[in-house]
Amino acid sequence: xxxxxxxxxxxxxxxxxxxxxxxxxxxxQQVSPIILRQEGDxxxxxxxxxxxxxxxxxxxxxxxxxxxxxxxxxxxxxxHEERKQNLYLQEGEHYDFPFILYAPLIPMDQLEEYPRxxxxxxxxxxxxxAGAFWLPxxxxxxxxxxVVFFPLVCSMQKRRNNRFETFNPKRRIVSLKxxxxxxxxxxxxxxxxxxxxxxxxxxxxxxxxxxxxxxxVKV
Length: 219
Description:
Blueprint: E1 18-28, E2 34-39, E3 42-47, E4 60-61, E5 63-72, H1 76-80, E6 99-107, H2 115-118, H3 121-125, E7 132-135, E8 146-149, E9 154-157, E10 172-175, H4 180-192, E11 202-204, E12 215-218
Antiparallel strand pairs: 1-5, 1-10, 2-3, 2-4, 5-6, 6-8, 6-9, 7-8, 11-12
């Protein structure tokens, strides 16, 4: 019901709502990134706070990555940029939309790291939880019951060669059909554009566990 029949998929085009074989989904492992600097033939890790010239140019940084099935969140027109044939760039050209947004799929039987999802599973399945989009099982296509959790959005830069390799249509597992791909886009836009109401939060200065934490700022 949710997924397009295989014979109706376009083998030469990607769509918002396409789901792909597992790829790395990276995230920073700590607040202060570890920067890798070239020293001779080696990459030497440096702490951000110890570098006076950090971020003056592009940096190599240490991140964690987990390989997961992934769903495209970028709009189809942003992915393809039709005026650039097959996404090929001439020398000196740049993409109008250089990054592709995607998100990992979390199997519904693996929600222990995400308490908001774990305690609201029935609302997830009914599509009644903000920030989450439920996907049903389709064992014949290799899809387990999963959820897209919008706070986990990742991005990947488009390749300069003739179509990027990671999101090759041949690696697509399934493609959402209408109106479900439109529902995904609508729910994603509502979540990303929501307005938070003001609350009395107290921000604290970090201290060791043996030191009492004092309030720093109140808004």
